[in-house]
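A further point concerns the way the authors explain their paired sequence and structure data. Nothing conveys this as quickly as seeing an actual entry. An entry of this sort, consisting of the sequence and the corresponding backbone structure tokens, reads as follows:
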Amino acid sequence: MERNFYTQNEVIQANITGGIGKIKTPWYRLFFLGMMAGAFIAFGAETSNVVMHTIEPVGLARLAAGCVFPVGLMMIVFAGGELFTGDCLLFLGIFDKKVTTGQMARTLLWVFLGNLAGGVCLAAMVFGAKQFDYSGGALGAFTIKVALGKVQLAPVQAVISGILCNIMVCVAVLMAGASTDITGKVFAIFFPIMAFVVSGFEHCVANMYYIPAGLLSASNPEYVRQAQELYQITAQQLQQLTAANFLIRNLLPVTVGNILGALIVSLFKRTRQK
């Protein structure tokens, strides 16, 4: 009887083999594929904001967002692209002595920059498409609120939240790799990604959309007025929503946490192999 799944060892070996291919990929291709993945994740992020911005119960709003956000990773798995958080599983290749630390760092750098470019570009395009005018500008106000909450995270909180997020993302990637058919891959991706979104954990690539979108929204006086009215956000708080805080107070610690999350999953998988 033909199996419709691969064993854990087969999935790990396939991931290692794929990692060897990634480190041999030219930088410009990594960057382009990174842009694709960054834009795909951004599509999931912007859709989740649209879905949840008028839902008041927090749990229900996050559940609604969690049901649509996984489309980003599905698009990457089925259409292609390189995602920084998933590519952190290159740790498996390092443990297997097939990949060097330098090769992993080079690969992740270009993918990270590509993801950032893709997320920022999509944020600009969504802003230009006037999507944030939805609900009379309430979506723009909500976008500001989401971004502001992320740059206000304490560093330790951001790191730990990043760890928890990428444990789920890496498990979703490995689970999807275990399935031999599209339906199985969809379910394997959907539930872990939904869980991290509902839990509110931090994903560096998703934040490459959320925070730039918030920065753009904050340039619109009407969105700012509604953010102050709907969410009692003060002018002093809005001063914290800056590009510098995006990079230093959110993206840096969240990225560190995401890397550590992938390391934890890789160590666990290596232990299971022995």
User: Anything to note?
Assistant: The two ends are 28 Å apart (CA to CA). The CA atoms of residues 149 and 241 lie 9 Å apart.
